[in-house]
Amino acid sequence: MKIKKLILTLALLVPVAAQAQFQGDERPAAGDTVLLSLDDAIKIALSENTSVKVADMEVQRTKYAQRGSYGALFPQISASGMYSYAIQKQKVYFGSDDDSGSSSSGGMASMMTSAFEPIMYYINQLYEATNTPFVPYVAPKQEETASSGGDAIEMGRRNQVTLGLSAAMPIVNVQLWESLRLTGDQVELAVEQARESRLGTVSSVKQAYYAVLMAKASYDVYNAVFENAVQNCKLTEMRYNAQKASDMDLARAQSSLAAAIPNVYNAENAIYLALWQLKAVMGVDLDMAVDVRGRLEDYAAQMFYDINEGSEATLDRNSQMRQLATQAEMLAKQIRMQTYACLPTLSMQLSYNYYTQSDKFNLSQWKWLPSSTLVFNLSIPIFTGGQRYHAIKQARVQANELELQRQNAERQLRIGIRQSLSTMETSMKTYDASKEALRSAEKAYDIAAKSYQVGKSTLTDLNNTELTLTQTRLQVAQAVYSFVVAKAGLEQTLGYDFSQE
Predict the structure, then answer these.
(1) Which own/partner pairs from 409-414 qualify as long-range (CB within 8 Å, at least 24 positions apart)?
(2) Residues 59-102: pLDDT tens digits?
(3) Which tens digits make up the pLDDT trace of 480-499?
(4) Burial of 485 (0-12, 13-18, 19+ CB in 10 A)
(5) Would you call 12 exposed, middle or buried from its count of C-beta atoms within 10 A (0-12, 13-18, 19+)?
(6) Could you give the 3-state DSSP secondary structure of residue 379?
């Protein structure tokens, strides 16, 4: 008798504990909870998701790189400055090494006389025009010293300063022009990768959103089972007190109630986990109180889908195929760029310099002299040891590898499309069959419940019909969930953007 009282007390206390769990502080207040629709969740994710932000930054980075590469077409202007101090000045020799010292000095004087002869002749003519006697120029006789032999003569000044401004730009460089086209493909590839990140984010948000709805549908089913178990336990207890139910019936009702409580707890915890996953995909704070709108049954209207339409869909908008096509174009341009490396290049360089020299470090007395040059540089590649030839061969092998990867990727994507379509078709058939079974299970449970109330059926019959009803409800929810998840994966594979849906 004590055991019966203990079981009865447990049956009365457990429902109270379960209801306290649902009304605890962990569930946020209704006024503080942000209700989100699927479109709202997707829009938030596209603006807050980390992968989307990183992809957008990568697009911006490649655009900056493209703009910077165009700078190679413009003149490259630079300024320079140089100061040098001659610790030992440069020395030069006049005459041959086998000349003696005197012959070297004589040779030097002869060179100076020969250099002044035209000037002296012109001055002589001026003097003859004015009837002024002319005194011929006589070079001073150089004294022979110990150092007047074959010694070198110092040249230059101690201090030398040069300031310059130069500008250089290519005139004809086909390889450079092709490389600039390659940077445009890199930007296009980054944009497509950002689009792929968005498509993946949208698909992840949809799956997380549907997971929350599925967890809520499961909670509703298990909560209904729990409420039915509470009612059946109370009814069995009343019949037991009226001596119309056996100890076995009471124990079975109490055990059914106790078994229903963990399922409710697990279902409620699944809702929390699904909401956390949704917030993580959206990129919002995990402590933010959010909830989703609607029920999973609301998406049953989307299950009317033409499977033949999906089977005829193309991969033109698939992000992976677009990226492979862009990479193939980039490899083709790399091959052309390596081929163009064999062509001549023409460049121009303009420089303007100011320089000065002095033995004394006196800036005010330095004399600055300008100089400027214009240079056209023609470079004709002749032989590089086969580097360009093997670079072209390497790029062609990479192009062949990429083509094989493209074929394999297309094959895998088409398999994925067929799997999604097959899952969607199976889900539609399962949904139709489960809805029909659900109507029969609900009718059978109502009959069994009324029969049990009037004592015409046993608790075992009622539990069996309730188990069938529970399984059927879960099958209906699972069919809808499988369909919408497969449809989200199909849309990602076909490359449907959020704005195009």
Answers:
(1) 409/320, 409/321, 409/324, 410/315, 410/321, 413/315, 413/318, 413/320, 413/321, 413/493, 414/315
(2) 999 989 888 888 888 899 999 999 898 888 888 776 655 554 44
(3) 999 999 999 999 999 887 65
(4) buried
(5) middle
(6) strand
Distance CA 475, CA 481 (A): 10
pLDDT score of 103: 47
Q: Residue 275 and residue 477: Cα distance in Å, rounded?
A: 18
Length of the chain: 501
Q: Render the burial of 370-381: b for 16+ CB within 10 Å, e for the rest.
A: eeeeeeeeeeee
Query: pTM for the full model?
Result: 0.73
Tell me the backbone φ, ψ of residue 382, rounded to 5 degrees: -115, -55
CA 337 to centroid of chain Cα atoms = 26
Q: Report the C-alpha gap between 250 and 238 in whole angstroms.
A: 10
CB 318 within 8 A of CB 417: no
Q: For the chain, what is the mean pLDDT? A: 82
| Sign of the torsion formed by the C-alpha atoms of 413, 414, 415 and 417 | positive
Backbone dihedral angles phi then psi of residue 285, each to the nearest 5 degrees: -65, 135
Give the tokens for residue 289. Answer: 């109180």
Half-sphere exposure of 71 (CA within 13 A, CB side): 8
The amino acid at residue 286 is L
Which residues make Cβ contacts (< 8 Å) with residue 497, sequence separation at least 6? Answer: 195, 198, 199
**pLDDT of res. 95:** 61
- Planar angle of CA 313, 315, 319, nearest 5 degrees: 135
- Do the beta carbons of residue 489 and residue 420 sit within 8 Å? yes
End-to-end CA distance of the chain: 66
In the block, residue with structure tokens 């698939």: 318
Q: Which residues of 49-85 are buried (b: 16+ CB within 10 A; e: fewer)?
A: bebbeebeebbeebeeebeebeeeeeeeeeeeeeeee
